Amino acid sequence: MANKNKKEYSFKTKTKKMLDIMIHSIYTHKEIFLRELISNSADALNKIRFKSLTNKKLLDDDTDLEINIKFDKDKRILSVEDNGIGMSRQEIIDNIGTVAQSGSQDFLEKLKEEKDAMELIGQFGVGFYSSFMVSSKVEIISKKPGNEAVKWVSKGDGKFTIDKSDKKGHGTKITLYLREGEEFDEFLDQYKIQNLVKKYSNYIPYPIKMDFKKQVPDESSDKENETKEIVEKKILNSMKPLWKKNKNDLKEEDYKEFYKNFFGDWNEPFDYIHTKAEGLVSYHALMYIPSETPPNYYHKDFKPGLNLYSKQIFIMKHCEELLPEYLHFIKGIVDSPDFSLNISRETLQKDKKINRIGKSLEKKIIKLLKNKLKSSRENYEKWWKNFGTTIKNGIYQNPSKKDMLQDLLLFHSTNSKENQVTLSEYIDRMDEKQEYIYYLVTSERKNAENLPQLEKINEKGYEVLLFTDPVDEFLTTFLKEYKDYELKSLNKEEIDLEKEDKESIEKKEKESKTLLETIKNNLEGKVNEVKLSKRLNKSAACLVSENSGMSIHTEELLKKTQDLPFESNRILEINPNHKLFSILKNEYDNNKNSKIIKEYSDLLYNQALVMEGLPVENPSEFAKKISDLMVKAEDREEN
């Protein structure tokens, strides 16, 4: 006798194509079907709990809302069951049909381009149908309070049937008849299922239960070490995540333990932020600032970004879009109802609510770092050694963040051998006559004190910032001034002195014009200009760059890592008050073609390189000229 209640339906053409691709394609994330089914169950439980607030008959006082997972290895069956709101006959047609049809054409187009369907399945609202990636048949039995139970069955072949069911209580049970093959066997393993629940659904606010089989000692047996198998129901998820707990209920150790376990870092965090927001955007966030850079932090295989959850359901790992690049070292979790399981990276970039969450988190991180700088200076300086370059890159990559980040910056300075200085501290102790914030690009802090470029500045008692980080000089492209004080480089040709000093040097430069041209010609290809120095006191010479170019140190560093399309113009500055310049001038006045001028020109240039900590161009030739000079000096003494 025909079953009048059972009816067969056909999927639309687009849905058939979608199912066919899912069934016959191989994806690396088949496992997400379990996440999707548990998520649907959690939504059903949320709905009945909400409706029960106004209709207490829906739930008995002793009703525990929960999700149960069962499996049968022999029959290759896996089921997910909840006692949520359930669906009526019409709802199961409409809801399941809508899921199958929603965005199916776009999904098909994208699926052709992607090898991994993990994000796409959520993105286009076809999560339930990910079940067909692992199943040859899917069965849904559902009952809504006040309605008869219904049974939905499909083999993913373009058809589905709906029939009556004898299910008594409200809720939904989805049964998957798993495909044959080793790749599907893992979904019939209790430990694999447990791990998947912890990975994707650990913080669902309802218990996810499963019967666990285990061996225990058989006390009734006379045999030694005899065991028996028992079955106990086990809750697979922790339900209440740390980030949603009240901060007053947590201890410092709780945060540190969670950080080490969740993010796999043996080091304690530098600090953390536990916050929530409600209003235009709502979220809970738990973010950690690491104290040490990960071993692969500067390698291409480093994966930055926060973990995203929506209503405690895991949806994305390593989300780079929420925070700007300069904060990619931040580890943490953001849980927001404004995120949905269909979120995509493209959506993240365009959604105004999500952008608002990102900006809010960024401000909180910067505020914390500023407070650490004030309250825990020693620890901040240690942290800065690891992450300072990253913060500086924030200004270089996005100049609009200059005002937000500039007070976090630390630099070495001539006033301190150990500690570093902020720009604000530098200004607070500036000399009254000082007009600029002076800086010097150098390779190492320990070599800076004896650099010739500092001689006149030191004489005035001015403090100089020492730029030892390769990114420092690029930073000044956008950080040109701080609190109305211009940053001025001592590595460049322009330097301001008292009027009388300037006039004196300009006069000597006119008198020595042809000599300086001769030295320049002797150093052709090495320097672009030779001039008298306004900055030297004791040293005979130094090398600087033109105002528009980069420093010699930065240029040399970049040459080691990449091909430069251009080179800065180098300028050799000679101290007009040094005895060596007097010797050169006298020699030139007596014999304009003197070989000594040629030799001294090379010696001055290489001496300047040595003072900068840079290699001389021809060490053996340089050593020979020094030896010859020493011999000549000895001969003059004997005569």
Walk me through the structure.
The protein is α+β, with helices and mostly antiparallel strands. It folds into 4 domains: 7-216 and 226-235, Histidine kinase-like ATPase, C-terminal domain (Heat Shock Protein 90); 242-375, Ribosomal Protein S5, domain 2; 390-489, Rossmann fold (3-Layer(aba) Sandwich); 499-546 and 560-638, Heat shock protein 90, C-terminal domain (Four Helix Bundle (Hemerythrin (Met), subunit A), Up-down Bundle). Helices cover 38% and strands 21% of the residues. It has 21 helices and 23 strands. The strands form 4 sheets. It has a 9-stranded mixed β-sheet, covered by helices on one side. The protein has a 6-stranded mixed β-sheet with strand order 16-15-18-17-20-19. Strands 10-11-14-12-13 form a 5-stranded mixed β-sheet, with helices on both faces. Helix 1 runs parallel beside helix 4, helix 2 crosses helix 7 and helix 17 crosses helix 20 (595-611). It is elongated and about 120 Å long. The N and C termini lie far apart (134 Å). Residues 98-105 and 114-125 have low confidence and may be disordered.
How do the strands and helices of this protein lay out in sequence?
Layout: E1 7-10, H1 13-24, H2 32-52, E2 67-72, E3 77-82, H3 89-101, H4 104-113, H5 118-123, E4 135-143, E5 150-154, E6 159-164, E7 171-178, H6 182-185, H7 190-201, E8 208-217, E9 227-235, H8 252-263, E10 271-277, E11 283-289, E12 306-310, E13 313-319, E14 331-335, H9 345-350, H10 352-375, H11 377-397, H12 402-405, E15 411-413, E16 416-421, H13 423-428, E17 437-441, H14 455-460, E18 464-467, H15 470-475, E19 481-482, E20 485-489, H16 499-511, H17 513-522, E21 529-532, E22 541-545, H18 552-561, E23 570-574, H19 579-590, H20 595-611, H21 619-638
Helix pairs in contact: 1-4, 2-7, 10-11, 17-20
